[in-house]
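Because showing beats explaining, we let one protein speak, sequence and backbone structure tokens together, and leave readers to judge.
___
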Amino acid sequence: MTAEFDVLGIGNAIVDVLAPTDDAFLDREDLVKGYMTLIDAERAETLYARMPAGVEASGGSAANTMAGLASLGGRAAFVGRVRDDALGQVFAHDIRAIGVDFATPVATEGPGTARCLVMVTPDAQRTMATYLGACVGLGPDDVDPVKVAAASITYLEGYLWDPENGKAAFRKAIACAHEAGRRVALSLSDAFCVHRFRPEFMELLSDGGVDILFANETEISALFETGDFDTALQATRCLGITAALTRSEKGSVIVGGDEVHVLDASAPEKLVDTTGAGDLFAAGFLFGLTRDLGLARSARLGSLCAAEVIGHYGPRPQVGLAEHVSGKY
């Protein structure tokens, strides 16, 4: 059956606030470098007031991936909840402007649109403090079975697994996708998520709920409770699914069936901010899969997309990716 969308992403709709900081600032604010921490509205206001001047940019992991896929020329849709406030208007405008179908009803009451405070240290590492706000209202009623069935792949971000109604939305999307003969992809999102929900993630990955897995080296090692990447890699292969494991400057390892591909990373002209690197890798990889490029070429495309986004502040591409990567993979 012909798909209306290449990928439907389901995740948190967030506006990022990015600012340059240093390790001393992270220590003073009791933030763990390189990790994501969930915060409440009061802490969000306090931390925002203490941060240096920054820039606002629409974000959210799955939303970034859909933006990247659309920039490559793919047909992308996104499901995520925002409030009818200024940040919600910014998010909706930005994701639609890049060509992503976004039709989730706007919340008219309750918490405001989510924001992620991103502290970028001189080594380009990002440390995040996230107020989920309106995102926690996303539930199974927001998942349209017709739209899921219209997408070749449904892409789920691990961050959304935290609230119970988010889990219910995930399970409904997985059931709808597989009933329609479509594939499901999952990003583990952050080691924070893996530590909190490891048994549940393992169940999803072991019972046929997920066809494609995205994880970085820290996340996959946490999933299999090992400090050795090779051990985690072999355990991943035993799952019998397609997995894209990213290792920052070490590149990526892609497994699927009898295939194993070890690929170098694509280096940016200048490393500025690693925010969105995994999201854009997923965008390129998923675009490649929907174009039958094979695992290795899809991963090379993902690496090129990641290199573009880490060369500037913000989690989404600043150039048209289709032209940027043309002839390079």
